[in-house]
Amino acid sequence: MPAGAHLLIPSINRHRLAGARRCASPHHDARPDAADISLLVIHAISLPPGKFGGARNRDFIDALFCNRLERTAHPYFAQLAGLRVSPHLAIFRDGTVTQYVAFNRRAWHAGESSFDGRAGCNDFSIGIELEGDDVHPFADAQYTSLARVSAAILNAYRNIQPARIVGHADIAPHRKTDPGPYFDWPRFLGELEFPR
Ligand SMILES: [Zn+2]
């Protein structure tokens, strides 16, 4: 990140990211240990799969996470019936960020998962969805936003060390592939300014 870029890192107040859109999800509950927020999980999603970038696609993602997706809006959505999931944040193709769940609450993004021998990663992680899929590069604006919000998160939650930033596929390798081979980890980690 260039000198001075840290000025662009948003603040986090009362577990909410300043400047983010808000879409309140009912899909969260208490963390078993409220003080343990020590893992950052990167995901990817597109709705319907492979379609992204439009206002309609963003609305579908908001609707899924906020439990108001119309099952009849697309044939694919029938198989999402009853799915109750949520990340803390999503970053859309234009770099805009939406917060669904406050960081101190347990969001439901990781599912059956394990990190460093510890199961149930939702308990102690923050989840960020990137709008996209396994077969297209992510947008420049998404890397910029992701670096900024991740810097804010690492600054606010000091137990998330750089080695504790992972993809969903890393913690659920038999079930998940996201954020997929097109997510450029060296680029992301290079743009991320770690707090000192
Ligand atoms: Zn995922």
**Which residues form runs of ≥5 with pLDDT under 50?**
none
CATH topology title: Lysozyme-like
Task: Give Rg in angstroms.
Answer: 16 Å
Taken together, the total number of domains comes to 1
Beta-strand content estimate: 15-25%
**What's the oligomerization state?**
single chain
Query: Which whole number gives the mean pLDDT?
Result: 94
- Please bin the fraction of helical residues: 10-25%
Helix and strand content put the structural class at: alpha/beta
Say which molecules are bound, naming each kind only once.
zinc ion
Sheet with most strands: 6 strands, mixed
The CATH homologous superfamily is called Peptidoglycan recognition protein-like
The number of helical segments is 4
Strand order of the largest sheet: 3-7-6-11-5-12
Based on the coordinates given, report the CATH architecture. Answer: 3-Layer(aba) Sandwich
The rounded distance between the terminal residues' Cα atoms is 14 Å
- Number of β-strand runs: 12
Globally, the shape reads globular
Compressed to H and E, one letter per element, the order equals EEEEEHEEEEEEHEHH
Could you characterize what this model shows?
This protein is of the alpha/beta class. The chain has a single domain, classed as Peptidoglycan recognition protein-like (Lysozyme-like, 3-Layer(aba) Sandwich), CATH 3.40.80.10. Helices cover 20% and strands 20% of the residues. The chain is built from four helices and twelve strands. The protein has helices at residues 55-65, 140-156, 168-171, 185-191, and strands at 12-13, 16-17, 21-22, 28-30, 39-45, 89-91, 97-99, 105-107, 114-115, 118-119, 125-131, 165-167. A six-stranded mixed beta sheet has the order 3-7-6-11-5-12, sandwiched between helices. It has a two-stranded antiparallel sheet with strand order 1-2. The protein has a two-stranded antiparallel ribbon with strand order 4-8. Helix 2 (140-156) crosses helix 4. It is globular, with a radius of gyration of 16 Å. The protein starts with 11 loop residues before the first strand and ends in a 5-residue tail after the last helix. The mean pLDDT is 94. The site of zinc ion has 4 residues, from loops. Residues 43, 168, 176, 178 line the site of zinc ion.
